[in-house]
Amino acid sequence: MPPLQIRDYSWQQTESTVYLSLPLRGVQPRNSDIFCTENYLKVSYPPFLFEAFLYAPIDDINSKAKIGNDAIVFTLYKKEIGMWEALSLASVDKEMMQKIREKSVLQAQERAQELTKAKAISKRENERYALKIMMEIEEDERKKIENLKENERKKATEDLEAWKAQQKIIAAEEEVKIQREVKICQQKKQIEREKKKSKDKTNHIKTMKSKNTIKGLHRIGTFCIILYFQEFMLSLIWVLPPKGSSANSIFSETLKDDCVPAPRSVGNIKIQFTPRVFPTALRESHVAEEEEWLHKQAEARRILNEDIPELSDLKEEEKNPEWLKEKGNTLFGTENYLAAINAYNLAIRLNNKIPSLYLNRAACHLKLKNLHKTIEDSSKALELLIPHVADNANARMKAHVRRGTAFCQLELYVEGLQDYEAALKIDPSNRILQKDAKKIRNIIQGTELE
């Protein structure tokens, strides 16, 4: 059935603009097809068709079309100022119409190619700009971390210098104290020497007096002198201690020895390790192969510890990727995203075949706005989540959502919508995903209309 040509249209014009109104009952944007170039206008709304071979060229890029209220209203801007004698050319045969149609289609194709190239160039520029901004942000973060480390190092150095200065002051005070004590001791010794000299001098004076007394006594008689000397000797014998008695002074006290406990006895503790038991039946046992496996595991752990210097400070249980993943999850819960990334990085170096490590690290990068790294980790997690089974469906959905969110934040809405649609295929009843996907579609449609 041929289409119905629209004849009852109306149009008005000014020197710069043409206003065209096409009455179409029940017309909707999704059901109507509008094609416009500078010399040709076509509207297809099955079963209706409208064609106009315009009287003069128009600015088809800036011209507008508004659909609603059972009509399509065109606002066509003229390229040349002036009044038209008619909307369409009067003398146009079929051959001329076909040429105009073909020329218009070629112009539209060339313009579409130019727009596609322009969009691709703009997209690359936007990605390059986003990558540049991301690198600048990461550089700023790195400088901040380096500044923090430098400040901590300076603070530690200052604290160390202050401690050394304090120790020097304490040592000087101790030295002054020791010198003071030595000086006091020397003064005491000097006083004792002076007392001793004074005592010796007094004894010398007494001795001289005794000699003078003896000379005087010679006049009295030798008998008195002998008698006096005997009494003096008897007094000396009484003062001296008897032979065989203790030589200690009567003013000294007996000192008691301190009680010191005996040293502890030395012993050895023997430790026995239970052998590793493999759950293998005796008839199927391969002890040699099992021992070789244990040796290879120990050698692999030793090489791994040498290749990763960070493992040297960790305990044996802390070298388990699962333990590091739980540690990263705990740090993520406390919003310490950088520390969580470090935990996931070390776990990935130990075992790079665990998808959840990449998935969790992608969540941390998304929180820190490291969008390109979020896309990389989400893509790596999807590569490892193969085959697609029910057990890993939830993980695959999260990977698509995180990568889609990163694309949308980079304003790559088409790629983001693809990830959200993939997540909806996994969980079609998720209302949040449906709402977000609808919002992204509206953004894309608005971008295309503009």
Descriptive account of the structure:
- With 450 residues, the protein is an alpha+beta fold.
- Helix content is 60%, strand content 9%.
- It has helices at 94-220, 222-239, 287-307, 321-333, 337-350, 355-367, 371-384, 393-409, 413-426, 431-449; strands at residues 4-5, 10-13, 17-23, 33-36, 40-45, 48-53, 64-68, 71-77.
- The chain has a four-stranded mixed β-sheet, covered by helices on one side. Strands 2-3-8-7 form a four-stranded antiparallel β-sheet, with no helix packed on it.
Q: Keyphrases for this structure?
A:
450 residues; alpha+beta; four-stranded mixed sheet; 10 helices; 8 strands; 60% helix
Protein topology:
Elements: E1 4-5, E2 10-13, E3 17-23, E4 33-36, E5 40-45, E6 48-53, E7 64-68, E8 71-77, H1 94-220, H2 222-239, H3 287-307, H4 321-333, H5 337-350, H6 355-367, H7 371-384, H8 393-409, H9 413-426, H10 431-449
Parallel strand pairs: 1-6
Antiparallel strand pairs: 2-3, 3-8, 4-5, 5-6, 7-8
Concise synopsis of the structure shown:
The chain has 10 helices and 8 strands.
